[in-house]
Amino acid sequence: MIHRADVLKDRTWALNGKVIRWSDKANYQTGGYAQVWNSLKPHFERVQQTMAIVTLKTGTSSADLISDDGKSEFYERRERRDLCAEEIKATLDLLWGGSSAFEKRLRLLVTERMFGIKSREAVAALSLDKLERGLKVLQAFEKRVRANKAILDKGELEVLAKLDIDIKYYDEGKAEEAELPF
Question: Residue ranges of the domains in the chain?
Answer without folding.
Answer: 2-50, 73-171
